[in-house]
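Reopening this one. Same input as before:
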Amino acid sequence: MKTTATTIEVLTRPASLDHAGGADFVAAAELSNLVERVLWGNDDHYYSPQARYESSQPNDYEERVMFVARDGVVVVGKAVIDIPLIDNLGTCYVFVAVHPDYRRQGIGARLYRALEDHAREIGRTIIMAWTDEPAGFDASPANVMVPATGAGAFPRHCATTALALRNGFQLAQIDRCSVLLLDRSLPRADALARTAQKTAGQDYELVHWRDRCPEDLVEQYALLRQTMSTDVPMGDLDWEEEVWDAARIREGEDRLLRSGGHSLVRAVRHCPTGLLAGHTILEYQPEKPEVVSQDDTLVLRNHRGHRLGMWLKAANLLSVPSVWPEAQRVYTWNAEENAHMLAVNVELGFVPAGYTAAWQKKG
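Same output, byte for byte:
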């Protein structure tokens, strides 16, 4: 542990990573990657400085403000506040990271106070945060916290829990982080996709696209994304429905492409009406070629009970080798109370890799 006097300041987003301030932004990005590497023991959750830079670009839907802690000129901590601009207008989302060599000096607490002060200044009264812990921790009752839902558990005595509790947060939900090994699971996925397709019957068909939704489907896809924002279990999080339209879809697609990333989306269409009834999303960053991220999966309520979720996920996984041939692992996150989707994942071959605590502070 290094003992030092640190300063906290706003890190202004540079015009580019090659302009003034770019080196500090890169240092903050690599600090996040270091913290993830130390936590997980690998670089599966790595994002390049360019990808992080693109995700921080202001847009019509969300604003980001970043603070850094410095030891002289060296960035040793960072804090981020994301501020929704068209929905959830009383809410903000925060993140704090401190270099392992500079922990237990109160830097994380000071960074968090900077975030909370900013939230108060802009009138946000609900603060949400998420923290991770790899699987394998001692889950005996004395060593874990359980949310009000009763689903899942998170270590009581780890540093992130201590920081959250000291600052007045409540544990709102637990997500399970799961990983699937493609070489072991694709034969199973093929059989599951065929069975699910038979169950779905002739009233449904799959459509898919890479990177950009077709124009004739984008409004329907936006409705699915909007529904997804509140249709999945949210625990005790005070999450309002997000506002999605074609423009928001295009902004997200363009941002991912600017970062160097790609997406593979598969949707299911209800043939009698011609309307989309569900979707699933895979994302990929070539800088970590072995890793794929499984994002949203949704089936609209009126179309459940036909194995559409399994069909969507299995079919999309089966496409991965031809689209991203170096991919070996797929990660996904699901609420621990989402028993149905967790069962689908387990059937496909996903196994627990870790857990994410969702924290909330109100007032």
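So the earlier flakiness isn't reproducible anymore. For the record, The first strand starts at residue 7 and ends at 11.
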